[in-house]
Write a structure and sequence with these properties.
The chain is of the alpha+beta class and 437 residues long. The chain folds into 3 domains: 2-104; 132-294, Nucleotidyltransferase, domain 5, CATH 3.30.420.10; 300-433, Roll (SH3 type barrels), CATH 2.30.30.140. 47% of the residues lie in helices and 16% in strands. It contains 13 helices and 12 strands. The chain has helices at 2-27, 34-47, 50-64, 68-107, 112-115, 131-134, 189-203, 215-230, 235-238, 256-272, 280-294, 314-319, 342-372, and strands spanning 142-154, 163-173, 179-184, 208-211, 243-246, 300-301, 311-312, 383-386, 398-406, 412-419, 422-427, 431-433. A 5-stranded mixed beta sheet has the order 3-2-1-4-5, sandwiched between helices. A hairpin with a 5-residue loop joins strand 2 and strand 3. Helix 11 packs parallel to helix 13. The longest helix has 40 residues, at 68-107.
């Protein structure tokens, strides 16, 4: 099975090579004809569809691979070459179109509408946040939903087990960005309705749910509407139906909150699951612990008090306090997961997910700080996150800036922090302010 997938991937890599040679020939020409530009646009539209096929194929290879690092390296090389070729092709097309418009404009043979026409995509100004994102509401009253996967789970323990595809149904609160994960066995509307019922039983019935236009979501919406119309429920109960909202087709950025949650969940988990295959119960346990990790991330300081080292997290809105993890011995990276007991494998995956997510989340906050300020300076009294790879899952080291130390050029690059563990001195690349401080 793996050999067949690898051969199919080889044919996709050959398409990259052929497209690269084709672009090299075009770039060697001083000027392209109209026919060459049209041919390039046609080839580019077909080439852009290649990545979706590769991603599906490469995911299956990674799940079946005995050496996930090599599989991820192959993905990285393919993605790097693919995006470089896309950028080069678009640059060639844009350059040629710009030269033609300039020539036509200087010759006076083109109208204003033609100059501004062409294949340029419309880019309207970004709209304001909807009320569901900014109003103070109960958690998950306005939710968003999307799917992540597929992931392979074993139908039973021991040898001879069969691997079946499963998916993760991800619910996100639009107000506080809390996450709720449900494991589903397929993409049918029946499985989605069952996951929705489990979600409602634990989080309460939402007023509205935002999703994409997938047949799973649209079908479940029709099923719920038919149930409310055809059942013998009273009129008042029938009026308490959930409002389903769907984003436009092929516009995932309209549901960006759910897409971000999908990435946070899937990006690291699918790489870790190449090491082992869980049963349904083990996978459900693992997802619940990952849900706790996602809901433990700090959002903003609880107060401006310099002696307060507490940060507000999504879990504060859900249970009124921060989430904690059951103590468990730290597992090293050198441990062979195949020699661990079944329950230890779940803990191993959870700890590795925590390490990856913790590092990525802090890096993301540092990116936001860089782009939202002019100098990247940190004020005294700010609540910051401190990088610490030795922390157990769901524990975040927070501190208040007591003093900064400018260099000879007057730019501060080191800060003294007061934490629950005492006073620390860290460089700016190891700390980051919370985004809403």
């Amino acid at each position: 099975m793996a050999d067949i997938l690898i051969r199919r991937r080889g044919s996709m890599k050959a398409k990259l090579t052929n497209f690269s040679k084709y672009l090299s020939v075009l770039e060697s020409n001083d000027e392209l004809s109209d026919l060459q530009v049209l041919d390039l646009e046609s080839r580019l539209s077909k080439f852009e569809k290649l990545y979706g096929e590769f991603d599906t194929l490469q995911t299956e290879i990674e799940l079946l691979s005995d050496n996930p690092d090599d599989a991820h390296a192959d993905r990285f090389k393919f993605e790097e070459m693919y995006h470089n070729l896309i950028a080069t092709a678009r640059k060639v097309i844009t350059t040629e179109q710009g030269q033609r418009r300039q020539e036509q404009t200087s010759a006076g043979s083109v109208s204003g509408s033609e100059v501004t026409g062409g294949t340029r995509n419309l880019q309207p100004i970004m709209g304001q946040l909807p009320s569901s994102r900014s109003n103070l509401e109960f958690p998950f009253l306005n939710s968003s939903v999307d799917y992540a996967g597929p992931i392979l789970i074993a139908d039973r323990k021991g040898r001879g087990c069969k691997l079946v595809k499963s998916y993760i149904c991800i619910f996100v609160c639009l107000a506080i960005k809390a996450v709720h994960l449900e494991l589903v066995t397929d993409l049918t509307k029946e499985a989605y309705v069952a996951a929705l019922k489990r979600f409602i039983a634990r989080r309460g019935k939402p007023r509205s749910i935002l999703s994409d236009n997938g047949t799973t979501f649209v079908g479940s919406d029709n099923q719920l509407r038919a149930f409310l119309q055809n059942s013998n429920l009273s009129y008042d109960v029938a009026q308490e139906g959930i409002e389903f909202n769907f984003v436009p087709a092929y516009s995932p950025h309209f549901n960006g909150v759910a897409e971000a949650a999908v990435r946070s969940t899937k990006h690291h988990l699918k790489r870790l699951l190449t090491l082992t295959h869980f049963t349904y119960e083990e996978m459900a346990t693992c997802l619940t612990q990952i849900e706790a990790i996602l809901n433990s991330r700090p959002l903003t300081p609880c107060s401006p008090d310099p002696l307060d080292f507490c940060a507000l997290t999504p879990s504060h809105f859900l249970i009124g306090r921060s989430l904690t993890s059951v103590p468990h011995p730290q597992m090293t990276d050198s441990e062979n997961i195949s020699r661990l007991e079944r329950f230890q494998r779940v803990e191993y995956i959870k700890q590795h997910f925590w390490k990856r997510f913790n590092t990525e989340y802090i890096y993301l906050l540092q990116q936001k700080t860089k782009w939202s300020t002019t100098t990247g300076d940190i004020k005294v009294g700010s609540l910051v996150l401190v990088k610490d790879k030795a922390l157990p899952p769901l524990c975040w080291l927070l501190g208040r800036v007591v003093q900064t130390y400018p260099g000879s050029d007057g730019v501060a690059r080191v800060a003294e922090l007061k934490t629950k563990k005492g006073t620390l001195r860290r460089a700016f690349n190891n700390i980051c302010p919370l985004p809403l401080s």
